[in-house]
């Protein structure tokens, strides 16, 4: 097989997301107090659990803040009903009343905000790239902000050998550009 073809296949595969089960962080805070709000602020603990799962194949059932969202399927169709990860923040008068990392279907969230109906992936108002969308409920005098994503552990910290690491979209694009440049060099 030609080296250029092999490199092109590698480049293509490295720039697309892998389809399959999705793993998410799961935790809940009902306060914005740093001392008590571990879901929001204990990022190293979340990264450590992920690292433990990835490096030792420890089962998710023993890691309380990790969840396999693909386990939730529609009994009639067999289709995944929670194919995304999410972060929800519910706040009122500047105070955080709820902070949630969990699985999501992209349109139903923990707070029943009928006035925030634009918060939906299906309707195109939420993107699967962790951008945050917010809605306000005058009935509850509260804001609901949600970010949704569709890659493993995208609703929390990245883990790199036990060290906390945040990979950005720019780093991923940079990797693809390096691979593309390398591919062009091999064509000469």
What characteristics describe this protein?
single chain, 188 residues, alpha+beta, two-stranded antiparallel sheet
Model description:
The protein is of the alpha+beta class and 188 residues long. It contains four helices and nine strands; from the N terminus they run H-E-E-H-H-E-E-E-E-E-E-E-H. Helix 1 packs antiparallel against helix 4. The protein starts with a helix and ends with a helix. 23% of the residues are buried.
Number of helices: 4
The beta-strand count equals 9
- Rg calculated over all Cα atoms: 19 Å
Strand order of the largest sheet: 2-5-4-7-6
Helix content: 25-40%
* Low-pLDDT residue spans: 5-19, 161-170
**Beta-strand content estimate:** 25-35%
Summed up, the domain count is 1
Question: What does this entry show, briefly?
Answer:
This protein is α+β, with helices and mostly antiparallel strands and 188 residues long. It has helices at residues 3-14, 38-41, 43-56, 169-187, and strands at 23-25, 27-29, 66-68, 84-92, 95-104, 129-137, 142-149, 158-160, 163-165.
Question: What secondary-structure arrangement, pairings included, does this model have?
Answer:
Elements: H1 3-14, E1 23-25, E2 27-29, H2 38-41, H3 43-56, E3 66-68, E4 84-92, E5 95-104, E6 129-137, E7 142-149, E8 158-160, E9 163-165, H4 169-187
Antiparallel strand pairs: 1-3, 2-5, 4-5, 4-7, 6-7, 8-9
Helix pairs in contact: 1-4
């Amino acid at each position: 097989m030609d080296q250029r073809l092999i490199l092109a296949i590698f480049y293509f595969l490295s720039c697309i997301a892998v389809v399959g089960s999705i793993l998410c962080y799961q935790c809940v805070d009902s306060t914005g107090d740093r001392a008590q709000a571990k879901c929001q602020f204990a990022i190293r603990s979340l990264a450590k659990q992920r690292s433990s799962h990835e490096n030792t194949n420890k089962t998710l059932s023993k890691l309380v803040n990790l969840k396999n969202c693909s386990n939730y399927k529609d009994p009639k169709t067999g289709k995944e009903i929670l194919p995304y990860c999410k972060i929800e923040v519910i706040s009122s008068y500047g105070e955080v009343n709820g902070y949630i990392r969990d699985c999501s279907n992209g349109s139903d969230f923990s707070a029943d905000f009928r006035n925030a109906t634009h918060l939906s992936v299906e309707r195109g108002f939420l993107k699967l790239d962790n951008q945050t969308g917010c809605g306000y409920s005058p009935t509850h005098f509260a804001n609901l902000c949600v970010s949704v994503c569709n890659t493993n552990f995208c609703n929390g910290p990245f883990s790199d050998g036990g060290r906390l690491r945040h990979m950005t979209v720019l780093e991923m694009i940079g990797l693809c550009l390096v691979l593309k440049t390398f591919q062009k060099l091999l064509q000469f």
